[in-house]
Amino acid sequence: AVQRFRAIAPVVAEHVGPMPYSALNSAFDALVPPGLQHYWKANFVTELSDAAITAHLDHAPRLPAV
């Protein structure tokens, strides 16, 4: 399932596997300056269907980025 994401653009960084929530929660702290309102919402999944990947590819480009 991840191969479709890799085919879209060059990979800058990748981690697929278990990670403590505290590490994930602080992984991007250096990119967000103090005072900037920053909120993440996520779900953890055990598989990605083709339909879910297609939905992400369709909607993700419209999301604002830091």
From TrEMBL:
<protein>
    <submittedName>
        <fullName>Oxidoreductase</fullName>
    </submittedName>
</protein>
